[in-house]
Structures are given as structure tokens and as C-alpha cells.
């Protein structure tokens, strides 16, 4: 039943973007930038302005960082055992250490937990976006011929509009800055449109990915880390984090999300195993049709 109530509606929206891209064709990069630079900051601003920052948010930040670096360390171990090159190692990290909490995770959280879970999922999305814009860009650049990870990562952080939305929302809340009703109505209109738009864009991105000669063994490692190891590590963290049971469930489910679409863009930009990272994104997204219902059954 939960498949039809949660997973199927999400994939139906993905399908709209997928079919539209295959039949009409859109400038996906431009649309993605539009969602990232114009829509997402407004949604994040509303989240941080309306919801008071609590200890739960602090623990979510700690959790996201611990999970990300735990997965990177685990991936380094696999790469060391298999004697992968620097580029192969960085490609494996991009495809296994960052989850799609934005296009995929937030609508799932909304359908599963309602508006309360959705608000916490937005915070997870912001932290995940920051990690991808720093740690993710670093490894994408490290695996490229230019190898300019630190400078590229720092520049990417400066250009991250989501962070400005979060900071502005927090300052407005802490200083009790009033926002007039007409302005807040405009904020609600844009914020409410953000999630459906980025879901359609993910469908378009998936339509542009093709699985070519991908190393099957390496792909299996990436999928196993992303869909099995990641939620298991998240479960271990939830045993010690003093947060609400609903947030613990959300943490585990978000950790079971497929590879993030943004890492595909980073891999393409820096030429760090782009075909492999793209294949891992596509296959992991399709596999969640089966893995997420199982995760819901285990967690909820």
C-alpha cells in the first residue's frame, strides 16, 4: 500500500520530466540553475524563518556530516582493497557518499510524515547541498586533470544561494523581523512550487543519462554502499542521537535515497568518471522502487 501512496506518486512526477525531455527536449542545465538559484532559496528561507532552530536541527547537522565522512572512509577502504586509481576512487565517492535529499527525499518525507517531517527534510537538504558544494566538489576536482579541489570548493560555497536563504531566514527569525502578508504570500507561492519543479527536473536529468560501458563490479560497490551501507550506518547513529523517533526514522530513510543528481553535474564539469557517476545515479534511482518500500517496512 505504501508503494502506491508514496513511491508511485513521486515516480509519476519524475516520469513527467522524463517523457517531456525525451519528446520535446529542454535545456535541463538552465532549468536546474533556475530551480537552484531562484526557487530553492525561497523555500529554504521560509523553512528557517517559520520554524524555530532547535537542538534537533543541531543534531541533524552533526548527523549529516558524520554520515557523509563515514561513507567516504568506507569508500576509501573499498578503493584501497581494489587498488582503484585516484580518479576511480573520487568517482566512487561521488556516486556513493551523497544522497538525493532534494529532488527525491523531500517529497517522500512530505508524503510519509506530513509538513513536520517535510520541514526537517528541508534542513537535511540544505546541509546535504552544502556538503556536496564543498566535499563533493573537492572530490570531483581532485579526480580531474586540473586537480584544483580546494579553490573550486570554496568558490562553489560562495555561490550557493541556498545558504544565503537559510542565513537570511535565521536572522529574520532571531531578530523578529516582520514580513508583510503580501510578501509572505509571494514567498509561499514560490516555496510551494519548488519541490514539484525540481522533481520534474530530476526526471529530465535521468532522461539524459545512458548506461554505456560501465564497470559492473565498481557499480555494484557504489549501489551497495548507497542503498545498503548508508542506511545501516544511519541506523547506528540514530541509536545514540537524542532526537525524536520520527526524526530518527527520517534520517534512516534519507540515507537510503539514491545517488544525488548534482554529483553527476560535478563529475561532468570536472571530467571525473562522468559515465560511471551518471550510471550510478540512474540505476540507484530505479532500484529505490524496490529498496525504499522495504526500508519503509523496516523503519516505520
TrEMBL record:
Keywords: Cell membrane, Membrane, Transmembrane, Transmembrane helix, Transport. It comes from the Bacteria. The keyword Transmembrane applies. It is a multi-pass membrane protein. One of its GO terms (biological process) is transmembrane transport. The keyword Transmembrane applies. It is found in: Cell membrane. The chain crosses the membrane at residues 6-22, 57-79, 91-114, 120-141, 153-174, 186-207, 219-241, 247-268, 280-299. One of its GO terms (cellular component) is plasma membrane. InterPro entries: Mem_transp_PIN-like, Na+/solute_symporter_sf. Coiled coil: none annotated. Belongs to the auxin efflux carrier (TC 2.A.69) family. This is AEC family transporter.
Amino acid at each position: 500500500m505504501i508503494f502506491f501512496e508514496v513511491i508511485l506518486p513521486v515516480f509519476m512526477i519524475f516520469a513527467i520530466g522524463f517523457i517531456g525531455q525525451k519528446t520535446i527536449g529542454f535545456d535541463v542545465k538552465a532549468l536546474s540553475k533556475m530551480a537552484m538559484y531562484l526557487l530553492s532559496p525561497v523555500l529554504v528561507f521560509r523553512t528557517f524563518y517559520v520554524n524555530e532552530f532547535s537542538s534537533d536541527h543541531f543534531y541533524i547537522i552533526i548527523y549529516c556530516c558524520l554520515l557523509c565522512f563515514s561513507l567516504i572512509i568506507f569508500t576509501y577502504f573499498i578503493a584501497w582493497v581494489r587498488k582503484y586509481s585516484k580518479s576511480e576512487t573520487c568517482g566512487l565517492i561521488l556516486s556513493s557518499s551523497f544522497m538525493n535529499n532534494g529532488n527525491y527525499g523531500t517529497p517522500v518525507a512530505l508524503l510519509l510524515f506530513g509538513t513536520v517531517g517535510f520541514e526537517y527534510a528541508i534542513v537535511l537538504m540544505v546541509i546535504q547541498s552544502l556538503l556536496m558544494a564543498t566535499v563533493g566538489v573537492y572530490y570531483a576536482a581532485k579526480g580531474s586533470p586540473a586537480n584544483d579541489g580546494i579553490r573550486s570548493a570554496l568558490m562553489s560555497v560562495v555561490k550557493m544561494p541556498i545558504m544565503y536563504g537559510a542565513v537570511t531566514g535565521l536572522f529574520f527569525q532571531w531578530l523578529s523581523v516582520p514580513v508583510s502578508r503580501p510578501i509572505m504570500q509571494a514567498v509561499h507561492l514560490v516555496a510551494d512550487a519548488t519541490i514539484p519543479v525540481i522533481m520534474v527536473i530530476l526526471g529530465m536529468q535521468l532522461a539524459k543519462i545512458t548506461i554505456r560501458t560501465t564497470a559492473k563490479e565498481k557499480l555494484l560497490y557504489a549501489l551497495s554502499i548507497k542503498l545498503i551501507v548508508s542506511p545501516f550506518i544511519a541506523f547506528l547513529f540514530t541509536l545514540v542521537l537524542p532526537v525524536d523517533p520520527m526524526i530518527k526514522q527520517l534520517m534512516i530513510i534519507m540515507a537510503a535515497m539514491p545517488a544525488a543528481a548534482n554529483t553527476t553535474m560535478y563529475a561532468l564539469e570536472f571530467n571525473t568518471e562522468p559515465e560511471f557517476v551518471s550510471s550510478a545515479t540512474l540505476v540507484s534511482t530505479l532500484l529505490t522502487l524496490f529498496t525504499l518500500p522495504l526500508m519503509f517496512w523496516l523503519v516505520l
